[in-house]
Amino acid sequence: MGRTRAFDRDAALERALEEFWRNGYEATSIAGLTAVMGINPPSLYAAFGDKKSLFGEAVRRYQETHGAFSARALSEEPTAGRAVERLLREAARIYTDPAHPPGCLIIFAGVNTTDAGVAAGLRDHREAGRRQILRRIEEDVEAGLLPADTDAHGLATFYAAALQGMSAQARDGATRDDLDAVATLALRAWP
């Protein structure tokens, strides 16, 4: 008969998520994870598998919680322009929220990783976000809400790059006001 877990799995996962967010995948050690999660290595492996599996679960949790604002903005707003504005404004707020590490886990966690699978997985998530922006822009072009000659691909890539830059700025200490100013300037590029 197996032993009952002596820890809250969801709380431990949230602490692991924040450790990966704070340090990135490569710099996060099993020792660091077990320390912040309040568990020992055998418990970590039994509950989550290896470090890579735990990271995958942390990324999914991030997308369902802290990072869910982007999918909501892109699906709930009536136009691509309003969706992109909301996306940038919410990024400014969330990337600088002192309740958790700054910036975006999906943008930062793969920096300097030597694990090609981790890097590719995060790149795929970022590309999926850019494609969501692209779809919204293309829908508005088709609906006549944006000029027919709008460079949808270029515009989507520009706003994805703006979000990535805002994340980097937040990690470097930019304030919400700083990032709101970036959003304001970036929105001037909207056709």
From TrEMBL:
This is TetR family transcriptional regulator. PROSITE patterns: HTH_TETR_1, HTH_TETR_2. Gene3D superfamilies: Homeodomain-like, Tetracycline Repressor, domain 2. It comes from Microbispora corallina. Residues 6-66 form the HTH tetR-type domain. InterPro entries: DNA-bd_HTH_TetR-type_CS (IPR023772), Homeodomain-like_sf (IPR009057), HTH_TetR (IPR001647), Tet_transcr_reg_TetR-rel_C_sf (IPR036271), TetR_C (IPR011075). Transmembrane segments: none annotated. Residues 29-48 bind DNA.
